[in-house]
Design brief:
Length: about 675
């Protein structure tokens, strides 16, 4: 009856259409009953049991279980009796990934994810820098929590907070009276304390779920400002753990906009501190910027500081024994040996971080010293690379490219402008706000894609972008099969390129000549996403000069959003020969003098033909030369014994006489009278 009711007016409903109508009923029901805003997605209409994935906000004044709410909804709207056989809380990432596995879900799932624009955004899950993690801790009892508390060498501050947590239980969630700052010596120790805190808070109804989000703000794993804000907004009634580290790399280059991230954090704290739990982690000796953050958070948060405790040698052995029992080394070493290796010197007290660090050190040496002794005395080769030289690699590649002098000069100006403005912002000075998006125009084979890829790497090294991500796409990646799917595919590409560069090749192909059709939908969505992501993603459009003018005319907002235009000229005959020699060098071939002359003649012809292909023409020529040389030496050598010189040399006989695309001659047709 549930599905029949939905489909009674229209038998053409697909899965997404049914889900959309279910969402409408849920929203209407929620408003009338002041209940949850439940957004449902049907997984399988043929199953004997209907499954829903629900994204709901804890906004109801009554603590109504979601299962009872769904049953009441079904009976009220559809008049059918039902029962919930199972309820399982999904992680945010699992919910997101299952909804986006197939395009048939995407239209409906977008309505769900963007229902409450202020709160429900999952864009941070696209982060590829491991800056976001999520844990689902098992719920447990008060007795088990206190038993675990004794096992982690607790400091008095943790013991006192446990007493405050269990002081009073109202049986329902009422909000966040306080937040936490954990000061420890290792990340592993922090995770143990966080887990215990979260379990205790859930046990006493101080939070709604043990789902805990982790994010790291440092030079290695950096979450974008808007992603940090949305992550906190989505964590209504649950903890957000934030570890603040160093904002710059050891080379001194700015890798993330620490100031913007900090401002996003302060905004999230001001708006959500009443109903989102903040747990800040400070690793002693590793976080040089944490004091800056905590100083600015002080007016908005009541922070309870929890320190890492210490214990006796017996306490440390007890923790070490648990690590040992859970490891794969129980069958190879007895615990006395492990204890001796981990604690060779007797000390008065041990903290949890010392225990974890000593265990990690033991694991790092036992593999070579005991389990694989053949490697014990091996002389290890140290691979050292200066960070400066690593950073200079893409610069050098760009400068060493054949020709393109104007392109290199313009590219260097753009890089310098971005880097200086970024540095001014970092120093607290006013910066000039200008569009960072670009337009590359040039004929085929003029290295547009190569230059764009190198610039993406340089932008990341200079701190202009957060990542060296380079996402290349074309019309096939952006145009959908039906109306509404195109916008979804475009937004997906922007999410994939977040923090880096999105390169749209042959962008003019999006102009399909029909107003309001798929191409227009793609271009309009691109313009919208360029504006939404202007501070975090650089878009580079590329294509042939004349068609790209039609592309720019397709939307009034395109030209104003493109800050830089680089024109890639055709290569000269001499430059094409240099490219050929570089390609031959990479493939361990040499070119005879007569072959050079014959190749140069071909390149001179190609330089005067617009559609010759530039670098692509050189690549095609090289492939033809190698095939011809292989055929020649294979036929000449009767015993099939070739020396290194003969098998590596390309001669004039291997150069084809003509490889240029031919043009069909057409008779001139006239209209008029012949007298």
């Amino acid at each position: 009856p549930f599905i029949q009711h939905i489909m009674q007016d229209d038998q053409r409903f697909n899965l997404a259409g049914i889900a959309e109508k279910v969402d409408y009923y849920f929203e209407d029901y929620a408003k009338k009953h002041h209940g949850y805003y439940l957004k449902a997605l049907l997984e399988d209409l043929k199953a004997s049991t209907l499954s829903f994935m629900c994204c709901y906000k804890y906004r109801s004044p009554k603590d109504i279980p979601v299962a009872d709410y769904v049953v009441a909804f079904a009976k009220s709207i559809f008049g059918c009796e039902s029962k919930v056989t199972a309820v399982r809380e999904l992680s945010t990432r699992e919910f997101y990934c299952r909804n986006f596995d197939d395009y048939s879900y995407r239209e409906a799932s977008y309505a769900c994810l963007q229902y409450d624009r202020k709160d429900v955004h999952f864009s941070y899950l696209d982060n590829e820098d491991k800056a976001y993690q999520e844990e689902h801790y098992p719920e447990t009892t008060k007795e088990d929590i206190y038993h675990e508390l004794r096992e982690i060498l607790p400091h008095d501050t943790l013991k006192e907070e446990m007493e405050r947590i269990f002081d009073k239980d109202y049986g329902v969630y009422l909000g966040m009276p306080t937040h936490y700052k954990i000061v420890v010596g290792s990340r592993e120790a922090a995770h143990r304390i966080v887990k215990l805190l979260v379990q205790a808070l859930k046990c006493n109804h101080r939070i709604l779920s043990t789902r805990t989000s982790y994010t790291y703000i440092d030079s290695n794993y950096t979450i974008a400002p808007d992603e940090l804000y949305y992550m906190v907004a989505n964590n209504y009634g649950v903890p957000t753990v934030i570890e603040v580290g160093e904002p710059v790399t050891r080379s001194g280059r700015l890798r993330n906009d620490f100031q913007n991230v900090k401002e996003a954090l302060l905004k999230a704290v001001r708006e959500y501190s009443q109903n989102s739990l903040f747990i800040f982690v400070e690793i002693v000796g590793k976080q040089k910027q944490s004091h800056v953050v905590f100083r600015e958070l002080e007016p908005y948060l009541n922070l309870v500081e929890i320190k890492e405790g210490v214990g006796t040698e017996a306490d440390a052995e007890r923790v070490q024994r648990k690590l040992y029992d859970k490891s794969a080394y129980v069958s190879y070493f007895d615990f006395d040996y492990v204890k001796q290796q981990c604690f060779p010197d007797k000390v008065a007290a041990y903290d949890l971080s010392t225990v974890y660090n000593s265990w990690e050190d033991f694991l790092g040496t036992v593999l070579q010293d005991k389990l694989f002794p053949a490697y014990k005395h091996l002389v290890h080769v140290k691979l050292e690379q200066e960070e400066a030289s690593a950073a200079a690699a893409p610069y050098a590649q760009l400068q060493n490219m054949v020709g393109l002098s104007k392109v290199k000069e313009t590219a260097q100006k753009i890089i310098a402008a971005f880097a200086v403005q970024r540095k001014r912002e970092h120093l607290g000075l006013d910066k000039l706000s200008f569009s960072r998006h670009m337009l590359f125009t040039g004929n085929p084979g003029t290295a547009k894609t190569t230059v764009a890829r190198l610039m993406a790497q340089i932008f990341a090294l200079e701190g202009i972008t957060r990542k060296a991500t380079f996402v290349e796409c074309g019309r096939a990646d952006l145009i959908g099969e039906y109306v509404g799917q195109t916008a979804i595919k475009v937004k997906a590409k922007f999410r994939e390129a977040r923090g880096g560069v999105l390169f749209i090749d042959e962008a003019y192909s999006l102009v399909d000549g029909y107003r309001g059709y798929y191409g227009d939908e793609a271009i309009n969505t691109i313009v919208q996403e360029m504006e939404n992501n202007r501070e975090d993603t650089i878009v580079i459009f590329a294509g042939y000069p004349k068609p790209m003018q039609r592309f720019l005319d397709a939307n009034e907002g395109l030209r104003s959003r493109i800050g830089f235009h680089i024109d890639f000229p055709d290569y000269s005959a001499e430059e094409l020969l240099q490219i050929l020699e570089l390609m031959l060098q990479e493939k361990s071939y040499t070119l005879s003098e007569d072959a050079k002359l014959k190749s140069l003649e071909l390149f001179e012809q190609a330089a005067h033909q617009v559609d010759a292909g530039n670098g692509r023409f050189v690549r095609n020529l090289l492939e033809q030369m190698i095939m011809q040389q292989s055929m020649r030496i294979y036929s000449d050598a009767s015993d099939k014994k070739w020396d290194k010189d003969s098998i590596s040399m390309l001669t004039a006989a291997d150069v084809p006489n003509n490889l240029l695309p031919g043009k069909k001659s057409q008779a001139v047709k006239t209209i008029g009278f012949h007298c």
